[in-house]
């Protein structure tokens, strides 16, 4: 410090001097009197040494190695993460949230000598062990926060001894079993956070004893059974969240009658039965009601209009059983900002202008509802997100022209023909556009019209009738899905300028020429490249391979030459399909070192030569699908060849298990990996998540000598796979 001061001007000099002096005074002062008590300091230093400090594997977390700055010769009450009682010097708060602590919380940890702690915040560390019973010794705790700590085992019953607790957070851990009954003693508890904690069993009835609770979050666990019918003891409850469990039965009306209740988040369970909002004499305070993906059927109760304070309402997948719905019931919910009525299975036809009283609406999902002719559609307020998939819309909704705040637009799976209007790309905030599964044939305006949309991130135009010319895309484009159209000619090299491109899917078109040779040093993270079923020719060159690739499908083209050796640098590669080309190469044994490769399909090319080499082991560790059929491989195929392929251990007979609904596109997007399976003579395309269950080897249609491996035999049968 003095060194840098030496070079300063006079003013800086004096500033430095003052700084230096005041620092010394502080240091001196702290030598004089430490607030911290020796027993507390030693407990803390020992606690520090119980862990090794190392960045956790969970990427991208910004943390702070607080304990590394603790020093024996300074006042522990000044340490990062510590607060002391100003009179007694006892440590009352310990906050080591996200401090890269690795190691178990020991039963005899010196932590439990900090008897006077009021607040213990150790979230986002890696204790990977159980929560010891001795936690019950810290009997003055008000706040206990152990979220995201890799804890497992049972929650100790000694928690029930922490009778001063007001705030308990055990979210995001791997516990087993139920909450201990002793927790019924925690009658001062106001907030209970147990999201994603792997808990199971019935709704913990002990919670009904905790009448001070304002927040209960049991989301994303494995709870089941009914909610208790009388929840009136939770009279101070404000937030109740149980999303993503298996609760069933009806929602008790006593819950709706809790006077303070503001958010009720019950989605993704099996709730059913009549929805009874009870006897709400005073206006409800409910602002969030989320019931999506439950098992509700029959009419949506019109009494929902009594919930006049709602600003978030999600009734997605309520099954009205093709009944008519009177959408007027939503008009009294004047504060609504978020409304999701998607796939409620009504035969009503809706005129969106009915929503004109909802002046705050910013998110609207009406997917699956028939909309009245689009030329008359309108919406009252500036929308951010508008999702009108499968709404039987036949014309491009013109009212969007004035929706200048729109950033997410989905009008997929409708019946819209003709050109995408030029003005769409002038909406200044537009980032996500899905117009797939319509009958569009082109883009109105000049070839660079989409580039006006300078913030575009995702564009899905797949399954339309788009043809040449291929549009120029803004360089913000991250995901471009253009499969199943009629594009022809070469892929314009302007695609090479899309520095943010992550996903490029152009399968099932008529492109020809070579695969763009610009992904190699491409300063992008191109991870999905699907060019299947076009007329690409020439070699699949090294320059076409980005080392970020996760999924590559160039099958069913006319590619020749060898496999690009640069694939060896794609350590994330999971899926490689080059089937049905004329690639002429030897067996790419070198791919065995790719740690993530799960699916390798070389079928129907001109690969040749042996696939096994004396002294070389084949270690495709994660491989699940291996198809090298219809090539010219020769030589001996030793039956032990596949012995080390552990991921392949349960080969099943695909011919018998392909459910017909998987034959073709599944509904979770259209850019997944796909493989053509030949079953009983007809080709069937397998797409998407269904892959997860298939494990297969096909080496048929080659010239091997020797025994075929047992598993291959089993799975290939009379036809392939
Ligand atoms: C801290 O220093 C004191 C003496 O200065 C010593 O007695 C004590 O053992 C030290 N604590 C640790 C944990 O090193
Ligand atoms: C947590 O610690 C365990 C055991 O020390 C270790 O195996 C695991 O990789 C660690 N997890 C993270 C995310 O660092
Ligand atoms: C909890 O308290 C009870 C009685 O107050 C005592 O018997 C029990 O040992 C305590 N448990 C723990 C783990 O501290
Ligand atoms: C409920 O709390 C009271 C104290 O307020 C306690 O005596 C009782 O045992 C608790 N009941 C349960 C089921 O834990
Ligand atoms: C619900 O429980 C409360 C006590 O928690 C009780 O006072 C009330 O009578 C019960 N209501 C019904 C309808 O059983
Ligand atoms: C859905 O509700 C029906 C009654 O309406 C019931 O028979 C069925 O078991 C429920 N399904 C689930 C998964 O809870
Ligand atoms: C609803 O409240 C009214 C008075 O506000 C009362 O007469 C009626 O009995 C209540 N009904 C139920 C089911 O609690
Ligand atoms: C958009 O707003 C302008 C000016 O407010 C109006 O003239 C035009 O008719 C509106 N367009 C549509 C399709 O509503
Ligand atoms: C995006 O493209 C435009 C021209 O098309 C260019 O001027 C601009 O610098 C590019 N932005 C980035 C971040 O590369
Ligand atoms: C990638 O970025 C580096 C540095 O940002 C630059 O030198 C190089 O030319 C870029 N490569 C390509 C192909 O754009
Ligand atoms: C793999 O990457 C390394 C380092 O970037 C490079 O030197 C090497 O040539 C690459 N290998 C292939 C086959 O492209
Ligand atoms: C676009 O919409 C279709 C049909 O609704 C859907 O299957 C697809 O996943 C959507 N695309 C994206 C990228 O979300």
TrEMBL record:
It is a single-pass type I membrane protein. Its main location: membrane. InterPro entries: Leu-rich_rpt, LRR_dom_sf, LRR_N_plant-typ, LRR_R13L4/SHOC2-like, RLP23-like. Residues 38-85 form the Leucine-rich repeat-containing N-terminal plant-type domain. Residues 112-342 form the Disease resistance R13L4/SHOC-2-like LRR domain. Residues 1-29 form the signal peptide. It is found in: Membrane. Keywords: Glycoprotein, Leucine-rich repeat, Membrane, Receptor, Repeat, Signal, Transmembrane, Transmembrane helix. PANTHER family: DISEASE RESISTANCE LIKE PROTEIN, LEUCINE-RICH REPEAT RECEPTOR PROTEIN KINASE EMS1-LIKE-RELATED. This is Receptor like protein 30 isoform X3. The keyword Membrane applies. Pfam families: LRR_1, LRR_14, LRRNT_2. The keyword Lyase does not apply.
